[in-house]
Structure prediction request, 72 residues.
Amino acid sequence: METKVAIIGAGDLGVTICQHLSADPSVDDICFIDDTKVGQNINGVKVICGITDIEKYHGKDFDQLIMGIGYN
Prediction:
């Protein structure tokens, strides 16, 4: 079964989570969800939508969702 994961937040924490997921052989595809970076590629991983559009993509572009929003 293909596992597709979306990470909410494409900042430092989200990118770190993405790096760890990239090393996991059970994860086939990764994308980001971030209001301020929609359409960008972060280290080769696409930001598919903003937070308000999550429901449109669930089950299609990702199966699992991980919170990757940190704080300063």
User: Anything to note?
Assistant: The beta strands are 4-8, 29-33, 41-42, 45-49, 64-67. The helical segments are 12-22, 54-57.
